[in-house]
Amino acid sequence: MSNLDSAGADEGTETNHGFGWHQWDVPMPLFTPSDLGVLRAANITSCITYLFVKVSILLLYSRLFGVNRILRFFIRAGIALQIVGYTGLIGEAIVEIYLCSWNPRPHSFCNHDYKVQYAQAVFSVLTDFYILILPIKVILGLQMSWRRKSGVMSVFMTGLL
Predict the structure, then answer these.
(1) Which residues have C-beta within 8 Å of that of residue 57, sequence separation ≥ 6?
(2) Which of 20, 110, 135, 145 has the fewest CB neighbours in a 10 Å radius?
(3) Cα separation of 98 and 34, whole Å?
């Protein structure tokens, strides 16, 4: 019984200090500058993860649809777009960490960092749809029944989930 009581006490203490709450519900005064720095650093790792996932999907497309010259061009353009876009977002996140987290006098940019988050979200969604749309024309041009085409299309459209 004492283990349960101590676990409950720890859980209550953590909840009072911001652990266990949804980030949206945690009041800003509870965040220390180092906490905000960690959250901003997580932005860098998420950008790196998105970059590698999307480039790997495009490389898979290159392997599957490399015969089609036009699609191969769009796949390579997509890879270049991913690299340039996410490199820019990672660079911006590093600048944001420096200007907003560990700088004794935060820059005025820090008051509007939500705009950067919106830009990252818009870029991510647009590139998701770009990757999703790429194979459609090739799949529709396959010489097979409409039922089989729709089956192949549904495999590629699982990205909508």
Answers:
(1) 131
(2) 145
(3) 12
Contact 131, 77 (CB under 8 A): no
Q: pLDDT tens, 13-30?
A: 445 555 566 767 777 676
Q: Model's pTM, two decimal places? A: 0.73
DSSP string, the chain: -HHHHHHHHHHHHHHHTTTTS-GGGS-GGG--HHHHHHHHHHHHHHHHHHHHHHHHHHHHHHHHHTT-HHHHHHHHHHHHHHHHHHHHHHHHHHHHHHHHTS-SS--GGGGGTHHHHHHHHHHHHHHHHHHHHTTHHHHHTSSS-HHHHHHHHHHHGGGG-
How far is Cα 10 from Cα 28, in angstroms, rounded to an integer?
22
